[in-house]
Amino acid sequence: MTELLTLGFLQRSLMAAVLTGGVCAAIGVFVVLRGLAFIGAGTAHAAFAGVALAYLLGGPPMPFAIAFGLGTAWIIGLLEERGRMKLDVSIGIFYTATMALAILFIGLMKTYNAEVYGYLFGSILSVTADELKLTAGLATVVVGLLTLFSKEFFFLAFDQEMAEASGVPARRFFFLLLTLVALTIVVSLKTVGAILVFALLLIPAATAYQLTFSLHRMMAYSVAIGVLVSIAGVMLSFQFDLPTGPAIVLLATGVFFLAVALSPKRAPKPALS
Amino acid sequence: MSHPRPAHTHPHHADHEHGKPLIRFDHASFWYPQGPALENITLEIADGEFVGVIGPNGSGKTTMLRAILGLLPPTTGSLQIFDCACQNLRCHHRARIGYLPQKRAVDPHFPIIVREAVLMGRSGAIGLWKRPGKADFAIVRHALEDVGMEDYEDHPLGALSGGQQQRVFIARALAQHPQILLLDEPTTGIDTTTQHNVLDLIQRLHKELHLTIVLVSHEINLIAPLAERLALLKTRLYALGSAKQVLTREILAQVYGPQILTTDTGHVIVADHHHA
Fold first, then answer.
1. Chain A residues with beta carbon closer than 8 angstroms to that of B72
2. Are both B168 and B199 inside the same structural domain?
3. Hey, which CATH number is domain A4-259, 3.40.50.2300, 3.40.630.30, 1.10.3470.10, 2.60.120.620?
4. N or C: which end of chain B has fewer CB within 10 A?
5. Which residues, in sequence order, are bridge partners of residue B213?
6. Can you give the pLDDT at residue A3?
7. How many interface pairs between A and B have CB atoms less than 8 angstroms apart?
């Protein structure tokens, strides 16, 4: 096992797993607490459409993925904010429309391009040094902003009315959260793919939610779970020749059900006197 | 439609036994898309004063608090808070206004402990780019001591009783070190004994910390003995003055209708049990 860790591609894969698992789990806490889970799904498919367009036009995939992901997240946010449409309806429309765009772009390509499918299903074992640098850069931005504004994000997640009354600019932070979700998804496309990134955003945070009554502990547990299942998933997939994305997600799902079984929240507690 | 106000009610100006006016409504009206919530309100509330706001459901009581918080600018007229137009309130102004919103059910599984909930009250004072320090945690502990909840710092908020949660939310408002404390129906949804405990606590805080208090309630009989002045609302300000001046059968009948009763002991009974 120690010898395996000297392999360059495996080192890069493990680094990518730590970054992706950690950043998804961190922002996932606010996604779960604010009930924004399906924005992750809609944004991931939009980012994939961006990647498909980049390959069709021969451009770099990441900027296209960022543009499509951010654009979709912001439009969904605007529709929600103005009360024009319920969140699940607008996400449903963008989810299917952007997936249709992705299929259209792939259909317009003259040759079969396996790399595009790498972004759909994830291909962490083929992460290059340049991709790893980009992932690390985006992850640093996301984690930095989350750390800087964690008290505002926690306040808004718990009590938006009070947060606004205290002078927290709720609208700006809502759009900042959507932006960070979109960036996180782009960071994770290569690792777990557009279909499974949603799970990595959701499951570690939902697992941590089961295990603690404290906001700060929820964040710590979520990041720890996200990083550990990502590392374990990469190692399992390498050892047993399994696809990496599904290995990470199924492992995380197993841990989630274990947490549900052991959750201190399962037994209803009598009110304290 | 005219709204006669008996001559013996107090004028709209702030009580001169207290400090300078902190809140000034000047012919202010507040409209929602569906119609007026408050119309032509002229009212001054002085530094250190305790004003109770009463009125039937939908009379604009909560709107008045939202306006003072700077969340709702006047459609016409003006509202000044700390000598600043309410629509221009900055973070440092808002940090001086503590707010206890109407009690809502706290999700018992939401992962938050008492200390974390109270620390949120420091958000405005700490500012956007900074993180809480030791001094903020000390203020949180002090606020919990003020409301008698210091032994529950590490308890999950969702596991506390309704009355204890109200105390924690009052501590959150106190952690701001506010000059003005706005309370929206602080006794709703808690048992009678706890109601009295919470009101005793509010009165003690008013006296000891010299807080300016605006308390909204439909429980007329509970707040009448505490408030120095009562404001009776039904979209318009019908009456303003001491409990004795405002709680007369004549004035109350204009707002609540003829089903109002006043007993010899000064208790008010409204046929609609929501306003008893």
1. none
2. no
3. 1.10.3470.10
4. N
5. B50, B181
6. 64
7. 87
**Residue A165 contacts B where some CB pair is shorter than 8 Å:** yes
pLDDT tens per residue, range B238-249: 899 998 888 888
Q: How far is A77 from chain B (nearest CA, A)?
A: 21
User: pLDDT tens digit string along B209-241?
Assistant: 889 999 999 888 888 888 999 999 999 998 999
| pLDDT tens, position by position, B62-78 | 999 999 988 888 999 99
CA nearest to B235, candidates B116, B76, B58: B58
Nearest residue to A153 (alpha-carbon basis) of A250, A256, A30, A71: A30
B149 exposure class (CB count in 10 Å sphere: 0-12, 13-18, 19+): buried
Q: CB of B113 within 8 Å of any CB in chain A?
A: yes
Query: Which percentage of chain B shows pLDDT scores above 70?
Result: 87
Question: For A143, what's the count of Cα atoms within 13 Å in the CB-facing half-sphere?
Answer: 19
pTM of the entire predicted model: 0.81
**Rounded distance, CA B110 to CA A210, Å?**
10
Which of B160, B178, B196 is a domain's end point? B178
Q: What are the structure tokens assigned to A256, written together?
A: 């989630």
Q: What is the mean pLDDT of chain B?
A: 84
* Closest to B222 measured CA to CA, from B276, B162, B147: B276
A74: its two tokens: 């912001």
User: By C-alpha distance, which of A139, A148, A143, A193 is closest to A20?
Assistant: A139
CA atoms within 13 A on the CB side of A198: 19
Spans in chain A with pLDDT lower than 50: 270-273
**Whole-angstrom distance, CA of residue A27 vs CA of residue B250:** 59
Residue B113 has its nearest CB partner, among A33, A150, A214, at A214
